[in-house]
Amino acid sequence: MKINYISLFLLALLTCASYSQNKIPKGNIADDKVLFEYAIYFLDNDIVKVEDAIKTIKKLHPSIKLLDSVSNPESIKESSVVITPITNVKEQFPPADLEYLQYTNQGLSESEKIELQKSKYVLLLDFMCKQDELITTLKTANNFVKDLVKNKKAVIFDSDTRETYSKDYWNAKRLINDNTVNISNHITIHFYQKEEYCRAITLGMLKFGLPDLCIENLSCNSSLGLTSFINLIAQTLLEKQKIEKTGRIKLNIDAIKNEELKAVLLSSLYENAEKKAEINLIKGTWEEGDPQNRLIEIGFSEANPQVEHNEVITKLFGSLDKVSYLNHNEELLAASKRAKEKIPELRKLFLAGLPINSSLLIKFPFENSEGEREWMWVEITKWKGETINGLLQNEPRVVENLKAGSKVSKNINDMFDYILYKADGTQEGNETSEIIMKMQN
Predict the structure, then answer these.
(1) How far is residue 2's CA from residue 224's CA, in Å, rounded to a whole number?
(2) CATH number given to 330-440
(3) What is the pLDDT of residues 8-38, one digit of tens each?
(4) Would you call 261 helix, strand, or coil by DSSP?
(5) What is the DSSP string of 56-89?
(6) Which of 14, 272, 273, 339 has the greatest count of CB atoms below 10 A from its CB?
(7) Is 107 left (phi over 0), alpha (psi -120 to 50) or beta?
(8) CA separation (Å) from 241 to 209, 235, 238?
(9) Which three-class secondary structure string do you get for 24-60?
(10) What sequence ranges are listed for the domain DUF2314 (predicted)?
């Protein structure tokens, strides 16, 4: 599962409850009845008639009962589906536009994105089941979709994740081969900037009868470890189906039952990973534009939550933070001078607003009480005049009273180097690191 970086005009802001508000009570966390919806958009005037879809489900998937309309959740007694044809697509069920697809497509070719805009026929599939039949129903539903689009020009839309999938991606990631589910293949994470910091929210937990998850006030440079962290929480909720202690849940990578996700999580560990942690769960507050679902916020303190974010992720997955001890030679100082010459350009770029999925880090010197210096990276969150405010990105080795994630303030003229992470995955700057690596060899 990839993280989707969504700008504010694509995704409405979500404000979750502060840590001081209601904790999630212990007990069952899953809905008794589950509803989820897929839509198949047919391309190039291709089509599967309703009667043919009915024949397919009766022949290949008879465990799913056909209904004429969506039931009241309370009346759901067995796995069922409502199949609705839509011919007035632009008015009744318009596809995601090209701009939104830039962030939310999974495996679509450029031609499929364009053809999707001209789709004239959709099959809307609304599935219903009881919680104890969820995995079987989800497996059958996803296979039914696979069968319907076989040998057809079509793409698939998941109403819960708001993503559009190619047939190949669907067959590779969304089919369930046993009785355990890798939840990371069935949800997505939206990660976007909200004022100085970033926030993350899942979409897709509703199809499992579970609340979606959100985290506030994140470092915008924290997305890599964050993905594994959120996937671990989601998988734990799916497998436990309950909260064992009010406002708290224990995470344990080794206890994950789904071997596929467990292998992915274990492969990302560093030697100092503990693989276990306990986190806070509090009730989130729904706002317009959010998933039509309950929300759980992963609760952290309000003063400097970024430190706690880093600590819990480091505890679970470990960290690799190398320290170099060396003297600054002429070559290194010359590279630092070239970086400083970029200050006006970097300031203009930052104040104009960094593009989606980009961030600016600057390396500054920090001193301890003994006068020893340590150069560390700071993610910039505010730039006013010569004053830089940001989040420390390294775990200090000699500087007291600071931790990774600490809020710090520095003078831009003390800058040693910079890294500009760009939206296309490339980066600019960090020339001094290349020289340091050469000096160490």
Answers:
(1) 10
(2) 2.30.30
(3) 333 333 334 344 458 999 999 999 999 999 9
(4) helix
(5) HHHHH-TTSEEESSPPPGGG--S-EEEEEEES-H
(6) 14
(7) left
(8) 9, 10, 5
(9) CCCEECCCCEEEEEEEEEECCCCCCCHHHHHHHHHHH
(10) 355-429
Using the structure block, give the residue that is written with the tokens 């600490």: 406
Tally of CB atoms within 10 A around 97: 11
- Cβ atoms of 408 and 390 within 8 Å: the answer is yes
Tokens of 143: 């296979």
Q: What is the pLDDT of residues 388-403, one digit of tens each?
A: 999 999 999 899 889 9
Give 326's pLDDT tier (boundaries 50, 70, 90). low
Q: What is the mean pLDDT of the chain?
A: 90
Return d(Cα 232, Cα 277) in angstroms, integer: 11
Distant-in-sequence, close-in-space partners of 31: CB < 8 Å, separation ≥ 6: 73, 131, 209, 210
402 vs 394: CA distance, rounded Å: 10
Q: What tokens appear for 168 in the block?
A: 């190949």
User: Exposed, middle or buried by CB within 10 Å (0-12, 13-18, 19+), for 152?
Assistant: middle
Two tokens at 210? 């579970």
Task: Give the integer Cα–Cα distance in Å for 206 and 307.
Answer: 30
Nearest alpha carbon to residue 152 among 47, 259, 300, 8: 47
Q: pLDDT at residue 7 above 90?
A: no
Asked if 193 and 74 count as a contact pair (C-beta separation under 8 A), the reply is: no
Cβ(83)–Cβ(114) below 8 Å? no
Q: Which pair of tokens denotes residue 151?
A: 């040998």
What is the rounded distance in angstroms from the CA atom of residue 280 to the CA atom of residue 14? 19
User: What pLDDT, on the 0 to 100 scale, is given for residue 201?
Assistant: 95
Counting every residue, how long is the chain? 441
CB count in 10 Å sphere of residue 170: 21
CA distance 391 to 305: 11
Phi/psi at 8 (5° precision): -65, -25
CB 231 within 8 A of CB 261: yes
Is there a contact between 257 and 242 (Cβ–Cβ < 8 Å)? Answer: no
* CA atoms of 166 and 421, how far apart (whole Å): 29
What is the spatial distance between Cα 199 and Cα 215, in angstroms, rounded to a whole number? 6
Query: What would the two tokens of residue 340 be?
Result: 């400083």
Alpha-carbon distance of 178 to 231, in angstroms, equals 19
Distance of CA 323 to the CA centre of its chain: 30
Burial class (CB in 10 A: 0-12, 13-18, 19+), 439: middle
